[in-house]
Amino acid sequence: MLEIKNLHVEVDGQEILKGIDLTVEPGEVHAIMGPNGSGKSTLAYVLAGRDGYEVTGGSIAFRGEDVLEMGPDERAALGLFLAFQYPIEIPGVALMTLLKTALNAQRKARGEDELSTPDFMRLVREKAGELNVSQEMLKRPVNVGFSGGEKKRAEILQMAVLQPWLCVLDETDSGLDIDALKVVADGVNALRGPERSMVVITHYQRLLNYIVPDKVHVLSAGRIVRSGGKELALELEESGYAIYQDEAAA
Ligand code: ADP
Ligand code: MG
Ligand code: MG
């Protein structure tokens, strides 16, 4: 699904990612944990193809294709989805309109017909219901005046409608109370399956009680300094990240 080899990334001439290797098989859920400023969001952005993140070495293959040759829209059409740590507001564009436009763009890129309006409405109502997203929220401009929890649910709704192959979730748990966290985790778990993979980025272990990962990686100062099974997240809860700082520096 995803094969990252020796990835080096610079932002504003400063090296942020210093040689990342990561392989995610179909069906696997990988958690990336690490302290603030370790490069977690940088990794998410470079996967999605955000401007200003310069790859100075290494490679990223997604479903066997070199994504570094593709724009963000092509990556999305191929089935790569990023749920943002800080979802942006899009005044003037209703959430419903965003969903329909994104889904149809994806279908077009894959040579499929547009979904009819009744079929689209049925799909969105079903997914929105599961995520406690109201009809009223669907009509509002994307994220404008949404609470933190509503923004995160809107991200997961986009994911549920687009059914990506690879979901990258950047600190989807930040700012959520326990009830909102459960709704989001249920939404994510509903999308788990043998052919879909997820990279769940989180600072805290708490989310991983609800979205149980197959593998956990610790990112520190732009390097993966440790990888293990789900028990590694619990260990980190005990030890904190400080013990990895020296390792990363070395
Ligand atoms: P995390 O998501 O793990 O908190 P980030 O990927 O956001 O970490 O940031 C990693 C490092 O890159 C930090 O030191 C941060 O200051 C730096 N950084 C991130 N974005 C930019 C940017 N646009 N310009 C300059 N430095 C940046
Ligand atoms: Mg951060
Ligand atoms: Mg971040």
Automatic annotation (TrEMBL):
Pfam families: ABC_tran (PF00005)
Domain ABC transporter: 2-246
Keyword terms: ATP-binding, Nucleotide-binding
GO function term, MF aspect, one: ATP binding
InterPro entries (alphabetical): AAA+_ATPase (IPR003593), ABC_transporter-like_ATP-bd (IPR003439), ABC_transporter-like_CS (IPR017871), FeS-cluster_ATPase_SufC (IPR010230), P-loop_NTPase (IPR027417)
Domain of life: Bacteria
Record-annotated membrane-spanning stretches: none
Keyword Nucleotide-binding (UniProt): yes
CDD domains: ABC_FeS_Assembly
Family, as annotated: Belongs to the ABC transporter superfamily. Ycf16 family.
Name of this protein: Fe-S cluster assembly ATPase SufC
UniProt lineage: Bacteria, Pseudomonadati, Pseudomonadota, Alphaproteobacteria, Hyphomicrobiales
Originating gene: sufC
